[in-house]
Amino acid sequence: MRTTIILDDELGERLRAKAHSEGKSFSAFMADAGRRMLEGSGKSDKEPFQLVTFRGKGVFEGIDLDRSNELIAAEDRETYGV
Q1: What is the pTM of this model?
Q2: DSSP letters of 2-17?
Q3: Which residue, of 4, 29, 77, 79, is most buried by count of CB atoms within 10 Å of its CB?
Q4: What is the pLDDT of residues 4-51, one digit of tens each?
Protein backbone atom coordinates (compact mmCIF):
# COMPACT_ATOMS: atom_id res chain seq x y z
CA MET A 1 0.00 0.00 0.00
CA ARG A 2 1.30 3.40 -0.86
CA THR A 3 0.28 6.37 1.28
CA THR A 4 1.40 9.88 2.10
CA ILE A 5 1.84 11.23 5.62
CA ILE A 6 2.80 14.73 6.68
CA LEU A 7 5.39 15.07 9.45
CA ASP A 8 7.03 18.13 10.88
CA ASP A 9 10.66 18.48 9.77
CA GLU A 10 12.22 17.71 13.15
CA LEU A 11 10.20 14.49 13.64
CA GLY A 12 10.84 13.36 10.07
CA GLU A 13 14.59 13.81 10.46
CA ARG A 14 14.62 11.93 13.78
CA LEU A 15 12.65 9.04 12.27
CA ARG A 16 14.93 8.87 9.24
CA ALA A 17 18.03 8.93 11.44
CA LYS A 18 16.66 6.13 13.64
CA ALA A 19 15.75 4.05 10.59
CA HIS A 20 19.26 4.57 9.19
CA SER A 21 20.88 3.63 12.52
CA GLU A 22 18.91 0.35 12.49
CA GLY A 23 19.90 -0.32 8.86
CA LYS A 24 16.30 -0.09 7.62
CA SER A 25 14.59 1.92 4.96
CA PHE A 26 12.27 4.63 6.18
CA SER A 27 9.26 2.65 4.90
CA ALA A 28 10.36 -0.56 6.64
CA PHE A 29 11.06 1.33 9.87
CA MET A 30 7.62 3.00 9.84
CA ALA A 31 5.90 -0.32 9.05
CA ASP A 32 7.69 -2.01 11.98
CA ALA A 33 6.81 0.88 14.30
CA GLY A 34 3.16 0.69 13.26
CA ARG A 35 3.05 -3.09 13.83
CA ARG A 36 4.59 -2.72 17.29
CA MET A 37 2.04 -0.09 18.27
CA LEU A 38 -0.89 -2.18 16.99
CA GLU A 39 0.38 -5.27 18.82
CA GLY A 40 0.63 -3.28 22.05
CA SER A 41 4.39 -3.61 22.49
CA GLY A 42 4.66 0.15 22.18
CA LYS A 43 3.04 0.52 25.58
CA SER A 44 4.99 1.45 28.67
CA ASP A 45 6.12 -1.25 31.08
CA LYS A 46 5.40 1.09 33.99
CA GLU A 47 2.67 0.31 36.48
CA PRO A 48 -0.39 2.56 36.03
CA PHE A 49 -0.47 5.51 38.39
CA GLN A 50 -2.85 5.08 41.30
CA LEU A 51 -4.00 8.14 43.22
CA VAL A 52 -4.25 7.63 46.97
CA THR A 53 -7.08 9.83 48.18
CA PHE A 54 -6.81 9.25 51.92
CA ARG A 55 -4.45 7.88 54.51
CA GLY A 56 -4.94 5.99 57.72
CA LYS A 57 -8.50 5.03 58.52
CA GLY A 58 -10.07 7.52 56.15
CA VAL A 59 -12.10 10.58 56.99
CA PHE A 60 -12.31 11.63 60.64
CA GLU A 61 -15.74 11.21 62.13
CA GLY A 62 -17.71 14.45 62.02
CA ILE A 63 -15.54 16.09 59.33
CA ASP A 64 -17.32 17.63 56.35
CA LEU A 65 -14.91 17.57 53.40
CA ASP A 66 -16.73 20.56 51.93
CA ARG A 67 -15.47 22.64 54.88
CA SER A 68 -11.72 22.48 54.34
CA ASN A 69 -10.83 24.62 57.37
CA GLU A 70 -12.27 21.92 59.65
CA LEU A 71 -10.20 19.30 57.88
CA ILE A 72 -7.00 21.34 58.26
CA ALA A 73 -7.69 21.91 61.96
CA ALA A 74 -8.32 18.19 62.50
CA GLU A 75 -5.07 17.27 60.76
CA ASP A 76 -3.19 19.82 62.87
CA ARG A 77 -4.65 18.33 66.05
CA GLU A 78 -3.57 14.83 64.98
CA THR A 79 -0.10 15.84 63.77
CA TYR A 80 0.90 18.56 66.21
CA GLY A 81 -1.47 18.04 69.13
CA VAL A 82 -2.75 21.58 68.67
Answers
A1: 0.48
A2: -------HHHHHHHHH
A3: 29
A4: 989 999 999 999 999 999 999 999 999 999 998 888 755 567 788 888
